[in-house]
Amino acid sequence: MQSAHLPQPLLLQNKNLKRALVPFCSQAIAIFLLLTFALTNFSFMKLDTKIIHAGVQPDPSTGAIMTPIFQTSTYVQQGPNEHKGYDYSRAGNPTRTALENSLAALENAKHGLAFASGVAATDGVIRLLKPGDEVIAANDMYGGPYRFFSKLWEDFGIKFIYTDTTNIENVRKEITGKTKLIWVETPTNPLMNVTDIEAVAAIAKKSNALLCVDNTFASPYLQNAIDLGADIVMHSVTKYLGGHSDVVMGALMMNSDELREKLFFIQKSCGAVPGPMDCFLVLRGIKTLHVRMQRHCENGRKVAAFLRNHDKVKTVYWCGFEDAKGYETAKKQMRDFGGMMSFELKDENVAAAIKVLKATKIFALAESLGGVESLINHPATMTHASIPREERLKNGLSDSLIRLSVGIEDADDLIEDLQQAIG
Ligand code: PLP
User: Fold this and answer.
1) For residue 372, what is the domain's CATH number?
2) How many structural domains are present in the chain?
């Protein structure tokens, strides 16, 4: 309002109002800036505090403690390319920015980028490569990336070499002058194999290759691969980070500014980005990551012990058993062992496994993992059906293997459910 055009009494009122408002506003701005500083400087925070606060700040326009869902595709500009940091939501959206900052903080990384799914995030990493480049990948990994490495990317001249990365010598042996990327999943889906991230990172560094670690099974609560030398961490956010089986999303976290620029260019050019509502749901999910993970680990420990002692169960794959193949490495690089496991019955007949899969009442027969509810799954015909049978069997994934994602229900109920299903 122009004060010159105001009548005298109004002008006075206006001046008094201004006098009263100036100290109030500067105080409010100071508090906001202090809060912003405190919440952006999360290096001093312990993990549980960081999970709740890092990367997210109260909304500056309203003070809303939860990041608003900026459900907009575009942003009004003052002049061409004169804007407030956002021009189009494929390139950037404030709800997504808050989530990306939070994801980066959780992995102790400088940058985070969110994608429409875990597979879209993986696709983003492969797009860093050129025809003729080689990738060394874990032979026991989730079927989705395997399918699109072998059925899509190989057609563009990228060579994928699959090996058992739990044995570091296998990785070293496969390195050639063309190796540009090492892709490790640890623990693996579904056999819970563990790879020594620090040891592979040393090989990657020496051979000028990038190391990308799929950290989905551990979640950032249990393992931080950037701290162990990985260049990029990938998550299927769909799983523990989202935590409530209501969102499909992926993410990449990295420290290098150069890598961030390249991956951001891929993210905005290819356009596999999540919408603001999904980003909000994951921001909300993340706030309970630590309490959920603690219970997943507690329940996982109890269910694994129950299965191991069951006289109809032949083998249980869980990396928390002291005699498990990957136990020492898992103990070194993880904070606990999580709620993912798989097992085989002594009766290796597929029909016997299917009978169990159909009989559970609390464990729901479904794809996916990492949600609050317990799930049971048959990798050979569900999550890993895209891997050729011969290849699967060679890597130890049998036709009768059953995978569990142990949720956060009462452990006694879960055990009772498995007991009645296995018989
Ligand atoms: N990595 C792992 C270990 C997974 O289990 C999955 C999905 O199950 C993915 C990647 C792919 O993620 P999304 O389903 O979000 O694309």
Assistant:
1) 3.90.1150.10
2) 3
Residues 6+ apart with CB under 8 A from 38: none
295 catalytic, yes or no? no
What atom in ligand 1 is closest to the CA of residue 119?
Answer: 16
Q: How far is the CA of 79 from the centre of ligand 1 (A)?
A: 42
231 sits in the region (left: phi over 0; alpha: psi -120 to 50; else beta) called: alpha
Q: How far is Cα 345 from Cα 356, in angstroms, rounded to an integer?
A: 10
Residue nearest to atom 8 of ligand 1 (CA): 368
Residues 100 and 227 in one domain: yes
Q: Is the same domain home to 36 and 105? A: no
Q: For the ranges 21-35, 110-124, 169-183, 352-366, which has the lowest average pLDDT?
A: 21-35
Show the CA angle centred on residue 182, arms to residues 181 and 188, nearest 5°: 145
Q: How far is the CA of 63 from the centre of ligand 1 (A)?
A: 35
Taking the CA of residue 249 as reference, the ligand 1 atom at the shortest distance is 15
Residues 336, 230, single domain; the answer is no
- Which one of 123, 127, 140, 142 is the catalytic residue? 142
Distance 407 CA to ligand 1 centre (A): 17
Do 297 and 188 share a structural domain?
no
3-state secondary structure of 136: strand
Query: Separation of 119 CA from ligand 1 center, angstroms?
Result: 6
Catalytic residue among 90, 268, 331, 355: 90
Express each pLDDT in 370-395 by its tens digit: 999 999 999 988 888 888 888 888 88
Asked whether residue 47 is assigned to any structural domain, the reply reads no
Question: Tokens at residue 211, please?
Answer: 């190391």
From 286, 303, 325, the end of a domain falls on: 286
Residue 128 tokens read as 């860093």
Does the C-beta of 185 come closer than 6 Å to ligand 1? Answer: yes
| CATH number for the domain that contains residue 229 | 3.40.640.10
